[in-house]
């Protein structure tokens, strides 16, 4: 239940990972045209000899098509793809794919469209961390899954020259070094990429098709010019054109389009600028003025549809006329490529598009360019393509236009989780612009609230409210109160939050389910902080239903996460686990996770596994969750994760590891800047200390805070919010019981009993079953120390009865050996049928007693296969353990936390692993270890 009492602040742009965390590319829809080969023209020159060379080269592993633009690389790959009988993943790269987030999203989606539906979808999400180690973890996970395939798979990366990020190139190079026989990679590039091509040639991994192989032969040139271009030429004329272009396919097309008294053209190796100038001079300038203007205006579009082109046309034109013109341009071979068989979607050849855009910028005034982008944005917005609409709105450079777009569509973007996208752009707007538009001010306040920047959120909510003094509307007033209700709820001001929520519901129209979903969520926050869990659950279910009706995906996910926590607090672990797993499946279906809910859910599942004493699985989920969640509202979720990790390390007897995790949690407090966070972390630290018998810090805290004095515990004081007060009283009772053990005096035990007698009715009223189990356990131990065994056994039996149906084991094991005698007496009373109460099942008690005598330990690494025994002997047990964590995608930092090692120690072990396996990177180490059977 930690999350309900937490506030925080947004990720600063200067922090590691902030650049990627706020990238709009992390959460917007994918462009499907990048994920399929282009449609082949019916009128083309088949090149079966080159297709055969590709098939032969695939047996080596990698096929590289490297040649200047216009040599038919993409067309040849599309022709080969029609002959490939196995799964094929196609990805046409662009400059934006240099962001690791976007690259893995597109690569994963290309693989899924190839039919590989069982791939780990977490891979793309892990890169949201924004650090190189996180990308390596994601890439290792993805390539591990590909290595396990039993069928051949080909991956095509077209326009590979646009990939320049060293991190991506290094990961791909490492993967290629260990490419298994059933995986084949095809790269099409305008120039040689910075990959170890010489080494691959020497090892026989590489097949190369360069300009020499791709240029047209005389026979192909003749067929192209006469059959495809429809020209009547003599063999001498064909030979002349072939000599002038040196078989360059695009050059042949250009010269054929510009036949006449033209000077001889140089080779295409004359430079990129020359190619663009040549296209403008020899193609564009020979078109009618109206066609030229149409081409230039529509060059701003990534994808051309007839209706959208008509909206940008220089003269009035309907969609039918635009489609007819596009059809004519396609059949004139004017570098227009169809993207579907129906001819309703096109794109310009990248070279031609670049040339057109250059001419557009050189010859048209900036206001016209801005107007074209505004018109494109408006059309796309009207037709529901908000991603491209926003792209063109931003390209217009018109801040007022972008602001108006945000005011209209901000709610729609927020519904789908694009919180960081909105914040990124809203923060760039002049304050005066935001102040002048109440919808923008309120949108900004909402986004800041969800990012936990509560001070700024409150200020912008006040700005929106000031507008209501001049032009009050009930709907706008209700929305302002809804946002203010969430701000106050997150601050822990429960009564004010509830009052604002009620006022909002009074004025919000019934059809405004978007705002009403937030109000219901705010009410749930209040009830949870007030330890009113049945009401909290009811409000969360209402929030989920309203959010689903409104299409508010983000709030629906937030409410589901909180619902699982409330269910766990009420003792329904199986139901909570089902809630979390269902929510996790929803993020999987989306193939991306714009707000890091996957990390949150991993932590929640890890906590439930910890309560059930499934330590190895809990360790995996907690470490994975911490890796996934850090860039997204990082402080509250990551802080909670580190607290549970500290508990886990305590359970394993790892005092140093527990202390390290607590220190990480404490470091998060400096980010949240929340006094409440500080108190929670301190309480958690004291509780773990008391479980180890370290009572002095807890005693000093109790005296300092006025909870304990020489006359006994303070039973009248009350902390706010109420949920915190319950945790304080549990800690205070545990402290008194510990003092009774240390001092050998009955008075502290009686004081503990006094605290618990007052606390238990409150816990029962709240239906806080999880805390009830702990309170009954403490009560049983206090009664036993006071010599009241029958009552002690009844209290213990009550705790077991609450725990057994859902598998709560950790609360009992946390009490340590002191509980064993009492469990033994309970078993004895059952055997002799002397208990005046209903005892728990003997199997549950037996399993608990067995767990007390079995030292806990994390999952051990599997032994290597016999074939790998020689290599395995080179690795120490610690190195094998680290190698398995690397294979599971753990970063160096998470390995350090999981094994309680210093970061430098982990790096030293990794260097030893690399040396022994003869590799240089994590990716290579995992691939080599898997091939040697060390990870079987």
UniProtKB/TrEMBL annotation:
This protein's source sits in the domain of life called: Bacteria
Matching SMART domains, A to Z?
Answer: HTH_LUXR (SM00421), TPR (SM00028)
One GO molecular-function annotation for this sequence? DNA binding
Q: SUPFAM superfamilies, per this entry?
A: C-terminal effector domain of the bipartite response regulators, P-loop containing nucleoside triphosphate hydrolases, TPR-like
Q: State the TPR repeat positions.
A: 557-590
* HTH luxR-type domain sequence ranges: 868-933
Checking InterPro entries in the record gives: AAA_16 (IPR041664), P-loop_NTPase (IPR027417), Sig_transdc_resp-reg_C-effctor (IPR016032), TPR-like_helical_dom_sf (IPR011990), TPR_MalT (IPR041617), TPR_rpt (IPR019734), Tscrpt_reg_LuxR_C (IPR000792), WH-like_DNA-bd_sf (IPR036388)
Q: Where is this region: Disordered?
A: 1-23
GO terms (BP aspect): regulation of DNA-templated transcription
Q: Which UniProt keywords apply?
A: DNA-binding, TPR repeat, Transcription, Transcription regulation
In its keyword annotation, does this UniProt entry include Ligase? no
Q: Has UniProt tagged this entry with the keyword S-adenosyl-L-methionine?
A: no
What name is this protein filed under?
HTH luxR-type domain-containing protein
Protein's organism: Thermanaerothrix daxensis
